[in-house]
Amino acid sequence: MKTNVKVWTRAALALALFVLAAGASAARAQATLTGTWTGSFGDKYADRKFGRKYEQADENDWQKEAEKKDGLHLSLERRTERGGRSQMGQTYDFSELQGITREQAQGSGPVRFALVREAGRVDLEGSFQNGRGSGTFTFTPNAGFVSAMKARGFDFEKTDSWNEHGEPMDRVFAATVLNVTTALADDLLSADFGKLDVDDLFKAAIFKVDSKFMREMKASGFPGLRMEELVKARIFKIDADFVREAARLGFTNEPFESLVKMRIFKVTPEFVAEVRGEGLNDLDVEDLVKMRIFNIDAEFIRRARAEGVPLEVKALVEERIGVGRSRKRAQ
Question: 121 has which bridge partners?
Fold first, then answer.
């Protein structure tokens, strides 16, 4: 009898622990985040709050979204559990928001609207005055999203490089704002990207990397690009068209990093034609990059030629930085 009591006691304790664990999970699933929002109608650009490693990109690159004439830029700010502040900004088409119209954002008065995504929903309340608004928001996660992602190998409850000290709720909130979906995960998993994690989902959503883009780059001669390189390609606007453009300039079979340098230092068809027009025809990408770095253009080449400087990149660079003139004075 005592044995049976012990068995039933253990079973009861196990059941109680299971119920407590289930209750805790349900509580976490139903937990919410709150904060404040500001909004402005018709902002031309919205700064990205992600991709901190890529701040060197120029003014035409990833930091500024394409113009959305009818867009509503929302900035969502809240306090973290550690006492700091977290802010995320994004521009949305009105079709992405429920309960608010263009006219309401342009006018004056109270508003109540929502951003509803697969990962969760953000309910916003406040007011607008002549195209600018503010108020409070509440974020409610979708527990089913986390489990669906985990089944696909993306664990939002696990710390990763994207948010080393953040809570799982922070990542689900970001997934909602950025519209990270299971469809995106399935698309990435269908391609040969290698091992992916939650960090990669955010990169793919921010920089618009998908299997289609990967296939296009593969067809253009870059079959082995991984997520980091494809992100870099998006940042610097390297696509199949740019690869073909480089080939027309005579730069075929170039390594990927050479194309990146061409974009960073603005080695354009016009610049290549300009320097070739001055007699510098046999230049590789590194030579052209050096000329861009030291601001060596057609006008400078003509002046240097008139002073007897050889038509060589090294000599032109030395002339630009003053080494060539120093040698002449020494002679």
Answer: 116, 140
